[in-house]
Write a structure and sequence with these properties.
Elements: H1 3-29, H2 38-45, H3 50-69, H4 72-91, H5 93-99, E1 107-110, H6 112-126, H7 131-144, H8 153-161, H9 165-173, E2 175-178, E3 185-188, H10 195-209, H11 213-237, H12 256-260, H13 270-282, H14 284-289, H15 293-303, H16 305-328, H17 354-381
Length: 390
């Protein structure tokens, strides 16, 4: 495996990490997650590519790490350890970064890092299977999980009323889970299914990344194009692959083209994943050629995704505090509520303009570049043992 192959993964992941900051600035800007206005709609829509790329390439990186280690047992131990660390970080450090409060007794968030952590734990069991079997498992989960949409209402009610309803929420349905009679509410934003399918498919895709460049690029183009075409076919038929049938949501005052590409993310539908993973895979050959300054900048962020993630939420939150102080002459208490799931609506007149949102986004990413570059170099030249996990 050459550095060139790693570079393409780092660039693609770096692009995803940068785009992610747009959505997280949006949270503190008080801008709604989508809507009929194209500017607001695409501010949210473009960030839909982030979680699929993040999860898929996490699987790919696990495969490449396994090749370097040459020991499945060592890889399994690493995945379990790192996965549990990610879950712990989500429930502690990241939760405080989102909220700037310590009200653990009322609110915990099961976000993307929670999901990725548990998927790593599950992947530690899957890696003992042959790589084609792991890939087949992942594709099957992605393709068939929307069969759940056809459950009769009585079955859905039975699941919600069963003693294991909390497990179903974690695995698939998401939503609030009350932990004990007087315990906190765990808000499950990212369920495990279908994301374990995305991670497993990404792991099998790692085998493609070890091929010689021309063959690898041809496979990427074929896979990416096929996913996009399948998305267009399924979305046009509007029968299977997404519970939100765009033909029947005409009550939403938005152009048809916006409704067509407005797919379900929670849980991520088959159509959502085809729409987002297809272009990402298709563009990997271009990422492989991104050797200029811009490509290297994205690669820096892609080499240290967890370090970037841990820094960017408090940095964005602090930037929002500064903006509030400059605009209102005070720090709005809303910024200390339970973002991003259980906070009340922003106060009247608080919402930022899109121009300000994107200005803060660019400023935060620029500020984070230097520490990320330092950390990436440190991991390469003189890494501490704990750096393998962050």
């Amino acid at each position: 495996m050459t550095d060139r192959r790693i570079h393409s993964v780092d660039v693609a992941r770096g692009v995803a990490m940068v785009l992610m900051a747009i959505d997280h600035v949006r949270v503190y800007a008080g801008v709604p997650p989508g809507g009929p206005r194209p500017g607001v709609f695409f501010t949210r829509w473009i960030t839909n590519f982030v979680a699929p790329a993040f999860a898929f390439l996490a699987g790919t990186s696990a495969y490449l790490l396994g090749r370097r280690l040459g020991d499945r047992g060592a890889l399994a131990r690493y995945l379990v350890t790192r996965g549990l660390i990610l879950v712990l970080l989500e429930l502690t450090v990241i939760r405080v970064a989102w909220t700037f409060n310590f009200d653990f007794g009322h609110y915990l968030l099961a976000g993307v890092i929670w999901m990725l952590g548990w998927c790593m734990v599950l992947l530690a069991a899957l890696i003992w299977l042959p790589t084609p079997a792991i890939g087949a498992f992942g594709v099957a989960v992605i393709v068939f999980h929307n069969l759940m949409d056809f459950l009769p209402p009585t079955a859905g009610e039975a699941i919600q009323q069963s003693s294991l309803s909390w497990l179903w929420q974690i695995l698939y349905f998401g939503g609030p889970i009350q932990l004990g009679q007087n315990g906190p509410t765990l808000m499950v934003l990212y369920s495990i299914i279908p994301w374990i399918g995305v991670v497993a498919t990404g792991y099998a895709f790692g085998a493609v990344m070890t091929l010689e460049p021309d063959r690898r690029n041809r496979i990427c183009v074929a896979l990416g194009t096929s996913a996009i075409v399948l998305f267009l076919v399924l979305r046009s038929l509007d029968v299977y692959g997404d519970p939100r049938h765009w033909h029947s949501i005409g009550a939403i005052q938005a152009p048809a083209v916006l409704r067509f590409i407005s797919t379900s993310k929670y849980p991520a539908s088959l159509q959502f994943l085809l729409m987002t993973l297809g272009p990402m895979i298709l563009l990997l050959p271009l990422a492989d050629r991104a050797r200029g300054k811009i490509g290297e900048i994205f690669a820096v962020f892609g080499k240290v995704p967890m370090f970037y993630y841990l820094l960017h939420i408090p940095a964005i939150h602090l930037a929002a505090v500064i903006v509030s102080l400059a605009r209102e002459g005070r720090v709005d208490p809303w910024l200390f509520s339970n973002h991003p799931m259980m906070n009340p609506p922003p106060p009247e007149g608080y919402m930022w303009s899109l121009g300000l949102l994107y200005l803060v986004f660019l400023a935060v990413v620029a500020v984070l570049y230097l520490p990320c570059r330092w950390y990436a170099r440190r991991k390469t030249t003189s890494p501490a043992p704990w750096m393998r996990y962050v």
